[in-house]
Amino acid sequence: MNDPLTQRMVFLTGLLVLAGVAGALLSPHFLQGSTVGYLLQYVPVLGVLGMAQTLVMLSGGPGIDLSVGATMSLVGLAIAAMFGAGVPLLLACAAGLVIGGLLGAVNAVLVCVLKVPSLMGTLATFFAYSGLALALTGGAPIGGIPDWFAGLAQGRFLGIPVHMWVVFVPLAVVLHVMLSRTRIGSHIYAAGNDERAAFLSGVKVWRLRFGLYCLSGVIAGLAAIMTLSWFQAARPDAGEGMELLSVTVAVLGGAHIFGGIGRISGTVLAVLIVTTLQVALQLANISQAWQLAAIGVLLICSVMADNAVGDRLRAAARRAAS
């Protein structure tokens, strides 16, 4: 319990319990068994975007990717358009992941090569990708997705949505292992903690961050595939608001905005907290405006808690890196 990162996990677990208690008090329907499946339906899309945001933040810079929601929308439209043009759906999905990586590479060029601050660079691509999605469709969704594809997001295995099993959980495990057990993970933390020291020790910092922005785009492509399965259509506004929610999940989960501190497990707990709170407020028929306000208050409390222990977290991370 003396480890600040462990304390953060305990703090998040406590928040999750409190969110569950609040849900039970707000609505008698919250404790029904069907609520679990309904709640977990929302977790994978926001969860994978939160993981992508966490990776970008961890590498420092400071880094942020405000285009993940717009990337998700644009990739979904590209997949649906390719399928409508006769490309097999699974092949179109694979091509969508490549397109996501290319859209992420645009961010990488802006931030890592042209040295545009990540906030401004990814905000610019957010507007560009969102505008392109609307311009190409006129704001109308692209349908025609076959019924069998709905099984990914709408199907259930042991009462849990299939995309939890085949996308969210595997991605979380792979990224956790990458960050905690591999050289790439140690390089990410090193770059986030002290960019100059990492560079002097042989870490290609700009190349590392370039790759993470590309990976963020690929993960946004995964989110697009899940959304396409869920809605059975590609919507130009599918990712609307997801960029800020993904930042909320990453920061709430313990990712330091200046890099070097954070865990995928924290992001997983954070997305469960946010989703539990959202579902509880929906079941209580509380308006969307108040839902957003509640998430904002939660984020403020998280940032205050992060500031209270931030110095201890950074000191512990530096000791671990050395």
From TrEMBL:
Cell location: Cell membrane
Membrane-crossing residue ranges in chain numbering: 39-59, 66-83, 89-114, 126-145, 157-179, 210-232, 244-261, 268-284, 290-309
Topology of this chain in the membrane: Multi-pass membrane protein
CDD domains: TM_PBP1_transp_AraH_like
The keyword Membrane belongs to this UniProt entry's keyword annotation: yes
PANTHER family (UniProt xref): ABC TRANSPORTER PERMEASE PROTEIN YPHD-RELATED (PTHR32196:SF21), ABC TRANSPORTER PERMEASE PROTEIN YPHD-RELATED-RELATED (PTHR32196)
Name the record gives this protein: Ribose transport system permease protein
Native organism: Palleronia salina
